[in-house]
Amino acid sequence: xxxxxxxxxxxxxxxxxxxxxxxxxxxxxxxxxxxxxxxxxxxxxxxxxxxxxxxxxxxxxxxxxxxxxxxxxxxxxxxxxxxxxxxxxxxxxxxxxxxxxxxxxxxxxxxxxxxxxxxxxxx
Length: 123
Description:
This protein is α/β, with parallel strands linked by helices. The chain has one domain: 2,3-Dihydroxybiphenyl 1,2-Dioxygenase, domain 1 (Roll), CATH 3.10.180.10. Helices cover 16% and strands 36% of the residues. The protein contains 2 helices and 7 strands. Strands 2-3-4-1-5-7-6 form a 7-stranded mixed beta sheet, with helices on one face. Strand 6 and strand 7 form a beta hairpin. The chain is globular and about 45 Å long. The mean pLDDT is 96.
């Protein structure tokens, strides 16, 4: 089962300080808007999201329909299909995508240790 491009979404206290830190590690800004308190940074195939004031915890993030360069891939499994396949496997959801919708949507599950996993489709 492919659930999309992988990144780590980090909850940060100071977006600019975090940006500077990760730039020292070789990451460059790949997307986002610092004035909106979020950035996506990339170093080779490693992707991290920096989010100030948006999430309570760090999260694993997957983006169906995108590759690691945020380019569309086809075909891909829609987030609604993924949600229902995971439900059939007995997983519980913290947040769910509305099955009656199309296009962008997301759901959140947690691993056994309480780590949130966001599956976030942008198209």
